Amino acid sequence: MIMDNYRDKVMELHEKQSAKGMSKYGIPLEEYNSTMGIRIAHLQEELMDALHYTFWMMEMLPEAPKVEQRVCQDCNAVWCNKGNNIAAKEHCLKSGMEHWGVGIE
Predict the structure, then answer these.
(1) pLDDT digits (tens, 9 = 90+) for 24-42
(2) Taking phi first (over 0 means left), then psi (-120 to 50 degrees means alpha), and beta for anything else, what does residue 32 get?
(3) CA distances from 21 to 25, 31, 48, 64, 105 (A)
(4) Alpha-carbon gap, residue 36 to 58, rounded angstroms
(5) Residue by residue, what is the 3-state secondary structure of the chain?
(6) How far is CA 17 from CA 24, 26, 74, 80, 88, in A?
(7) Any idea where the domains of the chain sit in the sequence?
(8) CA–CA separation, 15 and 68 (whole Å)
(9) What global pTM score does this model have?
(10) Measured torsion, CA atoms of residues 89, 91, 93, 94, in degrees rounded to the nearest 10
(11) How far apart are CA 102 and CA 22, in angstroms?
(12) How distant is the alpha carbon of residue 87 from its chain centre?
């Protein structure tokens, strides 16, 4: 039998997280009855944690990329100076909306 090291690590982490959730909530996620709004809020919190970890990890790179993002304050479109989401910037500029927020690094 061939061992799948990454899969084994994922499964081990899954078991630890499941035990942590059971300890905290007392029921498995499948039985946690909540509204869609609460479920989305939980996901938002997890994604914010993940975003914080990406910035933390980027600090360890020899040449951490400087990515400036601007957020349209009217339509919440995001533009990044690395080229992704350029369509959002063009949307706002074509609409005559020069309302970009403060850059985020």
Answers:
(1) 889 988 998 999 999 999 9
(2) beta
(3) 6, 12, 19, 34, 33
(4) 33
(5) CCCCHHHHHHHHHHHHHHHHHHHHHCCCHHHCCCCHHHHHHHHHHHHHHHHHHHHHHHCCCCCCCCCCEEEECCCCCEEECCCCCHHHHHHHHHCCCCCECCCEC
(6) 10, 13, 39, 34, 37
(7) 5-58, 66-105
(8) 38
(9) 0.49
(10) 150
(11) 41
(12) 21
Per-residue pLDDT at 64:
61
Burial label for 5, CB within 10 Å (0-12, 13-18, 19+), is exposed
Amino acid at 18: S
pLDDT in tens, 70-93: 666 666 666 555 554 555 556 566
The answer to whether the CB of 25 falls within 8 A of the CB of 38 is no
Residue with tokens 């349209």: 72
